Each structure stands twice: as C-alpha cells, then as structure tokens.
Amino acid sequence: MRSMLVFERQADKAAGAAPQLGQPVKRETPKFVLESYGYHVMRALDEQTAEQRMGNADAVIFHVPLGEVKAMARKLLKVRTAPLLWWCNTDNVAQSAAFCDDDVPIDGIVTPTMSEHEVHWALHFASKQCFERQQWINEKKQMEARLEERKWIDMAKGILCKIKNISEAEAYEVLRKQAMNERKRMVDVATSIVKVYQILQEQK
C-alpha cells in the first residue's frame, strides 16, 4: 500500500506553500509527511479530480472536517473500494466536534506527528477495517435481498390461498413446483403471480 489519494478542501491549496516564520505549516500537511515516508501522494482539491484519481489509490486520506467526509466517501467508494482515513490535526478537530456522533465511514486516523511505523500500522489496521466494513455491507445487501424475496413469496402464497382455497403449505408447494416446471426462481414466479393479480384487481 504505497499510493495515497489526499482529498483536501480548495482552501487548503495554500498549505503546500512555504511556511512563514514560526509557522511550520508544510511539515504538517499529509503530502509532506507521507512523501517523507516514501508514499506516493496524489492530491485532489475537488470532487472530479478525486474520482478520476481514485482508481490508482491504495487508500484515501481526507484532510477536511468530518462533516465533509460522508458525502465524498460515498462517491469515491462507488469508483473503488479502498481504506478511508481521516487526517486528524488541530484545525480538522476544531471544525468536527458537531459531527463526532455521525455515521462517518472512516477506517482509521492519521496525525501529523505519527512516525513512519505508526503510519504503516494505521494503514494496516485501516485496510482490515475496510475489508470488514465491506463484508458487512455485502451481508446487509444479501439479507435485504432475501427479505425482499420473502415478501413477494408470502404475498403470492396469500393470493394462492385466497383464490384456490388452500393452506399456506399447499400454496408454497404450488409455487415450488411451478418454479421447477418453468426453471425459474421461486421469487420470480411469485412476483409474476402478484403483479398479474394486482392488474386483475385494478380492472375490476
């Protein structure tokens, strides 16, 4: 994991400029810190650039307040799944207090004072967290799909019970046999029954 996409606000352009006397700004920027540890850094100051560069990023570091992370993270994860980290410095913390309870999809935190080894382990654990988060999302989608299928099957069973005057067990068997005969999934047969029944009811 060597290529980092750093998403910064447009106002942070000046952060890469030479620091003024007594203000070590440059040393605290993600670009300076990560490049000094051997990482390849791609900066993005707007959403379009971030989405274009996402395909080549091993991880994303948000150098913005937490309130700006959620919407941008959602867009970037549509391009590619990668660990998402937050650059936790004084300015970002001060502007993020109101969002600490929000459901922000962050896998880890990086700070300007971290050593090379600390950054390495932060990225390592963020990668594991990203994998677990993706697994949970996939499992949630599968569960929602199964619940949706169950809904159509239950509706079709209810219709069959009503029009054929049979039990739920018998209605389920009718669906199962019909699916086998048509070489379709039960949910597809059930959906067809429900939709045809609804059309007939509307025409009455």
* Proportion in β-strands: 5-15%
* Assigned CATH superfamily of the largest domain: Response regulator
CATH topology of the largest domain: Rossmann fold
Kindly provide the name of the CATH class of the largest domain: Alpha Beta
CATH architecture of the largest domain: 3-Layer(aba) Sandwich
Low-pLDDT runs: 12-24
For the largest sheet, list the strands in their spatial order.
2-1-3-4-5
Q: Helix and strand succession?
A: EHEHEHEHEHHH
Number of helices: 7
Q: Ends: how far apart?
A: 64 Å
Shape: elongated
Over all CA atoms, what is the radius of gyration? 26 Å
**Main sheet specs:** 5 strands, parallel
Tally of distinct domains: 2
Describe the structure.
The chain has 204 residues and is α/β, with parallel strands linked by helices. It folds into two domains: 3-114, Response regulator (Rossmann fold), CATH 3.40.50.2300; 143-203, Arc Repressor Mutant, subunit A (Orthogonal Bundle), CATH 1.10.10. The protein is 55% helix and 11% strand. It has seven helices and five strands; from the N terminus they run βαβαβαβαβααα. The protein has helices at residues 30-36, 47-53, 69-79, 90-94, 116-164, 168-182, 186-203, and strands at 3-8, 40-44, 59-63, 84-87, 108-110. It has a five-stranded parallel beta sheet with strand order 2-1-3-4-5, with helices on both faces. Strand 1 (3-8), helix 1 (30-36) and strand 2 form a beta-alpha-beta unit. The longest helix is centred in the last third of the chain and has 49 residues, at 116-164. The model is unreliable at 12-24 (pLDDT under 50).
